Amino acid sequence: MSPLDTLDAGLREMPLFDVPAPDRCPGQADTDPGRQALVRQAASRRRLRARFLRAGRHAVDDRDLLELLLSGCRPADDAGALAGALLDAFGTAPRALAARPDRLRTVPGLSEDAVAALKTAEALGIRMAREQVPQSVGPTFGRYDRVVEYCRTLAGHREVEQFHMLYMDRRNRLLADRLH
């Protein structure tokens, strides 16, 4: 037998594609209830994401926002349930974001990645609130309600009361904010 005959015989025995055989025929309905549920949840999440991006934050509620935030940290099948558990535990999405990491860890199923995502969202929200007025100018508190709004942004949803000292100049412009 020549080397070419040996090579030809070896090629005939080698499969052309290394693909597992399908467990169902194309066109056959998928009867696995778990798989069907995952497909429905993924489609629901895509619709939710599209609605949020199209219509903005007013088109979704706290549960939807938490679900969108957690969907990157959790399997698609339990991000919605986890968002519901957070609302049951803390009442609102802002309170869930403001919760201490050790309190967040008491929610069953909440991973470290999800805790980090929630705390990151909180930090970004605080930075966004502070960025509304340039730091070089500093916010001016000409009215009492502006002071209250500023303090609520910093600590309004905390479980433990915080004491902030606001240092201002004679024109009621914020110079520094210290947590004590």
Describe the overall structure.
With 180 residues, the protein is mostly helical. It is built from 8 helices and 2 strands; from the N terminus they run ααααααααββ. The chain has helices spanning 3-13, 33-55, 62-70, 79-90, 93-98, 101-104, 112-131, 144-155; strands spanning 164-168, 174-179. Strands 1-2 form a two-stranded antiparallel sheet. α3 crosses α4. The radius of gyration is 27 Å and the shape is elongated.
SSE arrangement:
Layout: H1 3-13, H2 33-55, H3 62-70, H4 79-90, H5 93-98, H6 101-104, H7 112-131, H8 144-155, E1 164-168, E2 174-179
Task: Please outline what is shown here.
This protein is mainly alpha-helical and about 180 residues long.
Low-confidence regions: 6-22
Radius of gyration based on Cα positions:
27 Å
- Helix and strand content put the structural class at mainly alpha
Query: What is the approximate shape?
Result: elongated
Largest sheet: 2 strands, antiparallel
The total beta strand count reads 2
Number of domains: 2
Q: What is the terminal-to-terminal distance?
A: 89 Å
Order of helices and strands: HHHHHHHHEE
Average pLDDT across residues? 76
Strand composition percent: 5-15%
Q: Helix coverage percent of residues?
A: 40-55%
Neighbour order of strands in the largest sheet = 1-2
Number of discrete helical segments: 8
